[in-house]
Design a protein that fits this description.
Strand 14, helix 14 and strand 15 form a beta-alpha-beta unit. This protein starts with a helix and ends with a helix. Helix 3 runs antiparallel to helix 4, helix 4 runs antiparallel to helix 8 and helix 17 crosses helix 19. It has a 5-stranded mixed beta sheet with strand order 1-5-4-3-2, covered by helices on one side. Strands 7-6-10-9-8 form a 5-stranded antiparallel beta sheet. A 5-stranded mixed beta sheet has the order 12-13-11-14-15. It has 20 helices and 15 strands. The chain has about 525 residues and is of the alpha/beta class.
């Protein structure tokens, strides 16, 4: 379970965050904080007193600690970047916190087990009625599913309702008109359609009846509703979370014809999204889930993330873009993730994509005003989150410096991303070697292009002809200018450290100029 979800349910303890990891942290268990223990388990959330902390923690895994603040936190611990650290007031009871976390993890385990049953039905292809009956058994209450025209798609079977309107719905095949009116009075269709809430809790007037409603959304459009009344047992917070997940499964079932025709994009989407978010933490789980959706895994994978440089990709374009890319890249599997389209390309060879595939993809993206970032190849799908970040960094850096696109390979964009990162907290001039400052001053005074010449000379290692062509000058002109640089600065261009310092500055300066150009419009 992701730690922020756990902490969100501990607000009653006046919890406050002191340190946090940049990437999501998933918790499997919880323990009391062992006094002065320096080595902790990364997938565990520890609860104890700050006075029990050691002077430092060993290892480089992400750790998670909740402390009742009865002493100051040691500086070496506060200096860690891979730590989720939360503090509680001194009047909080340690065991109350541990019990609450235990309840949270139990609820999460219940939801996970329930989703496994529902997903088994989905993958078995037993239909929306069987899904509804399974959900009803899990929720312990009747489940009603209707489309946006209020036609009943499915409802719990074998139940006799005391409510005459619900009984009449069995024969009507539609939501009873009086219930439709009540839903509209409660603004259910308006709120769900406007996405103001994922789930709505409605208390019926003059009654103990409480309904949970959730919208069924396809491509950002609400296509129907799920309703669950508390006829047999009271609703719990975990019912709300499970209903939100169940509504997504129902959306898949409603879209089933399309998603089988479109290489089962939605079905693959659940597994791929879980890989991208880091929710899957077992290779065996990956293999089992891949087998259930008939995804043949290969030794090497590359992630390609397609983005719209102008903003988010509109929902109505997602399917057609995904289909076209799948036509170009054989066997690519896709999902939507954080408003982009993410493709997994699995191959036997490390090179992954063929020349024809890259050219075809580039032509399509260019014609569609889209761009893509491509990760380095990798062999462990548990690292999908890391390589997805690579694809995003590649396209971000490529679009920033306006390199030739529209496909940006992380291997080629790595130095631009590093420069981008440095510029967030530093000015490029702070990295300017003295020798480059001398050359820049000479260029200004004599209206020459020694700096630009040096940059291209360093970029085209051992190939002065290519450097001269890039500058549109004769090779002899280039060599004359480089000799002038040596004369002015005494630079040793065979020294790796001097070359690196100069190239780092040139890369930073290029990124700085790109940022300024973007800011000017």
């Amino acid at each position: 379970m992701e730690i922020t979800k756990i902490v969100g349910q501990l607000e009653g303890f006046k919890i406050r965050q002191v340190k946090g990891c940049d990437t999501p942290t998933y918790i499997q268990t919880h323990k009391m904080l062992p006094p002065k223990e320096e080595r902790l388990f990364p997938a565990c959330i520890y609860v104890g007193y700050s006075s029990q902390l050691p002077e430092a923690l060993v290892g480089d895994d992400r750790l998670s600690i909740v402390c009742i603040e009865d002493a100051s936190i040691p500086e070496p611990i506060l200096a860690r970047n891979d730590l989720n650290l939360y503090l509680l007031p001194t009047d909080i009871d340690q065991f109350d916190v541990l019990n609450k976390i235990a309840d949270i993890l139990i609820d999460e385990a219940w939801i996970t087990a329930a989703m496994r049953r529902i997903l088994d039905d989905l993958y078995s292809g037993v239909g929306i009625q069987a899904l509804t009956d399974t959900a009803s058994d899990i929720f312990g209450n009747p489940v009603f599913i209707n489309d946006s025209s209020f036609k009943m798609l499915a409802m719990t079977q074998g139940v006799t309702f005391e409510n005459d309107q619900l009984e009449e719905q069995k024969e009507l095949g539609y939501v009873h008109p009086d219930i439709v009116e009540a839903m509209r009075r409660d603004d259910i269709d308006f709120e769900l359609g406007g996405h103001s809430k994922k789930t709505i809790v409605v208390h019926r007037p003059n009654s103990d009846e409480v309904w949970l409603f959730s919208g069924i959304s396809l491509h950002g459009i609400v296509m129907g509703f799920i309703g669950i009344p508390n006829l047999f047992r009271e609703h719990t917070p975990r019912d709300i979370e499970l209903l939100e997940r169940f509504s997504k499964i129902v959306a898949v079932e409603m879209e089933k014809d399309d998603f089988y025709r479109d290489s089962r994009g939605v079905k693959f989407g659940y597994l791929l999204s879980d890989l991208l978010s880091g929710k899957v933490q077992s290779r065996r789980t990956i293999e089992q889930r891949a087998k259930s959706v008939r995804w043949e895994l290969k030794p090497w994978t590359r992630i390609v993330t397609v983005v719209d440089p102008a903003g988010f990709i509109p929902a109505e374009r997602v399917q057609s873009i995904a289909q076209r890319v799948q036509h170009i890249i054989h066997g690519a599997r896709w999902t939507t993730f954080k408003h982009n389209i993410v493709f997994f390309v699995c191959r036997d060879m490390r090179s992954s994509l063929t020349e024809n595939e890259v050219e075809g993809l580039a032509d399509f993206l260019g014609a569609s005003s889209l761009a893509a970032g491509m990760s380095m190849p990798f062999s462990d799908l548990l690292e999908a989150t890391k390589y997805h970040r690579q694809s995003l960094r590649a396209v971000d850096a490529g679009l920033l410096v306006r390199r030739a696109g529209p496909i940006f390979d992380y291997s080629e964009m790595l130095t631009y991303y590093a420069a981008q990162t440095l510029l967030k907290r530093n000015d490029a001039d702070e990295f300017c070697p003295e020798s480059i400052s001398i050359v820049k001053e000479y260029d200004v005074a004599h209206e020459t292009e020694l700096c630009r010449t040096l940059e291209q000379y360093l970029l085209h290692v051992g190939d002065p002809v290519a450097a001269a062509e890039a500058l549109h000058v004769h090779r002899n002109t280039l060599l004359y200018r480089i000799n002038k640089v040596r004369e002015l600065t005494g630079m040793d261009l065979t020294d790796g450290n001097e070359r690196l310092a100069a190239q780092l500055y040139f890369r930073l300066d290029e990124c700085r100029r790109s940022v300024l150009q973007m800011e000017r419009g």
